[in-house]
């Protein structure tokens, strides 16, 4: 099978998370599986639990990352965060790229779930590809407010090319 390319924006976001070999990670919105592929490369005893509301996203991730699933590093499920019962007791990291949940509606229940499941010092990483730069201030304001209200300390990072903004919420 030909290697699929991984967009630079995804590479940058995964590098920002500083994945450790034993991390327990939740990816919200796994889409094509590009981030899952990169994350699993860095895991040894750690695990990635990837979810997506879309059946096609789940299917694409399962196909792309079949070896990771077979190796026991990756579990993929079709579900949304609101109805998720995280199968691991404690997470080190939560990752989402271009998942608008955190800035388009009230997500207090979802943020509370993440806060409950993250270990002290764990972090939520929310990344947005800034294809519409005029939306970035609103995204930062709303997503930051949701995380802060849920008990997280928030910092903002960005990259100029390709343009990506990230929010890191630490527990």
TrEMBL record:
Transmembrane segments annotated in the record for this chain: none
Pfam families according to UniProt: Methyltransf_25 (PF13649)
Ranges of residues in domain Methyltransferase: 25-122
Designated name of the protein: Methyltransferase domain-containing protein
UniProt organism field: Nocardioides aquiterrae
């Amino acid at each position: 099978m030909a290697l699929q390319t991984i967009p630079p924006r995804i590479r940058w976001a995964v590098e920002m998370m500083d994945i450790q070999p034993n991390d327990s990670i939740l990816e919200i919105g796994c889409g094509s599986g590009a981030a899952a592929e990169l994350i699993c490369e860095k895991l040894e005893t750690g695990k990635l639990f990837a979810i997506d509301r879309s059946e096609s996203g789940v299917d694409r991730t399962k196909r792309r990352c079949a070896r990771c699933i077979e190796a026991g590093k990756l579990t993929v499920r079709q579900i949304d965060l609101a109805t998720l019962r995280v199968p691991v007791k404690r997470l080190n990291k939560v990752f989402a790229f271009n998942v608008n949940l955190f800035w388009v509606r009230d997500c207090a229940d979802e943020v509370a779930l993440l806060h409950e499941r993250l270990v002290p010092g764990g972090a939520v990483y929310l990344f947005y590809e800034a294809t519409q730069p005029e939306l970035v201030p609103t995204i930062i304001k709303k997503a930051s407010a949701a995380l802060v209200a849920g008990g997280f300390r928030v910092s903002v990072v960005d990259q100029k090319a390709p343009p990506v903004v990230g929010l890191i919420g630490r527990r």
